[in-house]
What we know:
The protein is built from 10 helices and 2 strands; from the N terminus they run ααβααααβαααα. By secondary structure, the protein is mainly α. The chain has one domain (11-251). The model is unreliable at 1-5 (pLDDT under 50).
Amino acid sequence: MSTAPALPAPVIRREIVIVLALSLGASAIGAVVSIVATLTEPGGLSEAVATMNSARAGAERPWLDLTRQLVSLALAMAPVALALHFLALDRGDPFRLIGLDRRRPAFDLLGGAALAAAIGIPGLGLYFAARALGLNATIAAANLNDVWWAVPVLVLAALKNAVIEEVVGVGYLVTRLRQLAWSPVAIVVAHSLLRGTYHLYQGFGGFVGNAVMGAVFALVFLRWKRTGPLVVAHTLLDVAAFVGYMLVAPHVSWL
């Protein structure tokens, strides 16, 4: 992967701002506003609930809900397409560039599974510890109606999150920051803070856990030059969280 800037630095900086403003940067700003609102409400974080993957229509209109879910998932890929398009303009095949191709499928799957295991268990422990300390909202990871398509949509939502965060936040952003001659340490810190910030709506536990995950993923990308394992790991983590919550939450009180 070349680090020689094919575009002038001001152009790359403007491009980064545009891509992030349409994706993870906008999410980060929204998360900051969200946590400020939560902290200033009665009960604060300890009584707050962060809701994810909610129904988009009433239970009596499941097909409308499904349509809205699928449209939302599809439109969320627009910033990913934009980031890949920008990379293609001066860096060639963007999928090969960021390691999201089919050259090493076994490596991507096994590496992703190992990453998911290494991050998932400590992350779950951090979440429960932060909740016990009143530093995190309760995460309601799946709030769909009782519909036959709930699991497929939750799996697609997990894949959507993985693709956006790893392609835009790691593959695209790290590549562009390297072109701007940022040091590896600065790149890791920048991505770590970005990932932590757009998860702030969950609370300070969510910020810390995702900042650590961001640092690990940025280091892995700098080492392996592939986002494939990152997408696999992130998808597995979110599938476990979303589908696991949907299956377990109705039967336990502590979730």
